[in-house]
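A reminder before we start the practical. When you read a complex entry, don't treat the lines as separate problems. The point of joint prediction is that each chain is placed relative to the others, so the output describes one connected object in space. Small molecules and nucleic acid strands, if listed, are placed in the same frame. In the example below there are two entries. Take a minute to note the order of the lines before looking further.
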Amino acid sequence: MAGALNAALADALEQDPRVVVLGEDVGTLGGVFRVTDGLAARFGDRRVVDTPLAESGIVGTAIGMAMGGLVPVVEMQFDAFAYPAFEQVTSHLAKLRNRTRGAVALPVVVRVPYGGGIGGVEHHCDSSEAYYAHTPGLRVVTPATPADAYRMMRQAIACPDPVVLLEPKRRYWSKEAAELTADGPALDEAVVRRPGRDVTLVTYGGTVATALEAADAAVEEGWDVEVVDLRSLSPIDDATLTASVRRTGRAVVVHEAPGSGGLGAEVAQRITERCFHHLEAPVLRVTGFDIPYPPPKLEQHHLPSVDRILDTVARLQWDDQPEPCPAPYGARRA
Amino acid sequence: MTPSSPALDGSVQERAAAFLPPGDGPQALVDPTGSPLPSPLAMPADDDLLALHRAMVVGRRFDTQASALTRQGRLAVYPSSRGQEACQVAAALALRPQDWLFPTYRDSVAIVTRGVPPVEVLTLLRGDWHCGYDPYEHRVAPQCTPLATNTLHAVGLAHAARLQGEDRVALVLLGDGATSEGDTHEALNFAAVWGAPVVFLVQNNGYAISVPLAKQTAAPSLAHKGVGYGMRSRLVDGNDAAAVHAVLTEAVAGAAGGDGPTLVEALTYRVEAHTNADDAGRYRDPAEVEAWLAKDPVSRSEAHLRSRGLLDDALAERFAREGEELAAGVRAALEHDVAPDPRELFEHVYAQPTAALLEQRDLLLAELEEEPA
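Here is the predicted structure of the whole assembly.
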């Protein structure tokens, strides 16, 4: 996936002279995850800029650059390192178009490597999507595959709105071959990754692969599981989501961010509101615990696993299900 | 190529000295009585002095009118810049047409001087919308309410101009309080590292709402802060329009010529309270206000121009009349409230409204239809 993102940045830099890449260590080093590897050598240090170590400064100057006619793609080195830029993102990047009645468009892409599963230390593994998705004016997207990483990066750069592009770190090194093209589903479309008839797993980013694995394993249990990859967390593609759950009648939302106040609650509410008469069971969630991101040796307990997803699917009031009332937070027992 | 460790040897001291504000106190060209002062600064041309004076007279009338409209309930709030007219008009008049101004909420007079129609400036304070003008039309960014955040926008825009090979300078207005914010630090640092064509004008008016400068900083002056960033710094009498204009014009020319950014601290005073909702009597002595009124920028400029024979009664009356005409126009325009269209709430959030926003708009419209007109 890192390679696909790199190719997308290179192609955008090549094709549009307004595109500039900014961030900490993005130039000579090529980024701590090598997503910008080779770009400074190819496009020069005026277009691929090693900035001072200051995230608010990076986003704030990117806003000014966009006002001045450029298309900045900025890197926040890690999820939790993006918080110093929060005011610039929420109070200005998200609002300037609205503030100026549409006169000032800010086509800025904020890249945030996010999520855990890589054995990272504290402040390197947060899932910060809910903060951004709660902010009107931002588009928030996250790719789950290399093909989507390329496509969504290109589409995000071409988008007239500011886009927070959340890159699931644990998929950076996924090697699956992919045709790299900007064509395909639009930036705000969800896709069905795996069709199924019995239950819909709704997920995004780093947990899409986990959900697909769970769906494969569920065949043995006799469940035909559909997996919907949301891709866009703001706005949410209600049409794809609703169509899937109306077909299957059951839904589980999976994400690794803490459950409370998380995006899963938003998705579950949307499903309940739009699919109530099609539902055979309450919508359940499999999420990370409501804890600060755990240390590396404990993160496997925190992250949604195939087993936890299957346990939760088992609680969706199937006819042979002995315990009809699900515990809150999916399969976890108090 | 590893830089050697920066010991404070002769060369470091020399470089630091080059960034320091020249002289002991603030640079000035005209004293409070209107008499010219000896100064290495170049006195602006007569036309510029008259333009500054005219803009101050008109700007003060605008400010007075806006304050009055607030008392009448026609504006929701108005942060007056009375007493800061020299900084306000010099900031606008030191810029060339292609340059950009990045103002805060207290800088309405600067924006009016830049040419934005007064009614559009007051849209924010009237409560109709967050910004009433198109920033690209006069190259004035929206008035910034969270302080210091606009410093970074100015640096970005200025740097973008350089990357695109365009001759464009950004001048950002901030106050003494905003110099404590992290964004100001980051902006000064980015600007210096990039050599961006940007001018920071700190209007040090003594107070951040109620907090005096002594509780804001322990620096010898705010201009001294520029030294640490490797940036030219200037300290100027902020009630001397001629001096502020001279310093800013030089800074703008330097930025345009590739010399990078300048930090300018202008010493001035906020004569009115923070806003109409504030009570300045709770935190400052009336005697202090009186002392500053004696240093009023408008009467200082008038005395100077009259002593030089550049201003007579007829011209002074003409400037006053222009101010009255502007004030009358503002009163007429604001006489009747124009109800903002609630549909607009959903229009500009994204380039195209999302499906969810269209649903929410329809919900609101249905509610409004049910309401009696």
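Discuss with your neighbour: Chain B has a mean pLDDT of 95. What might explain this?
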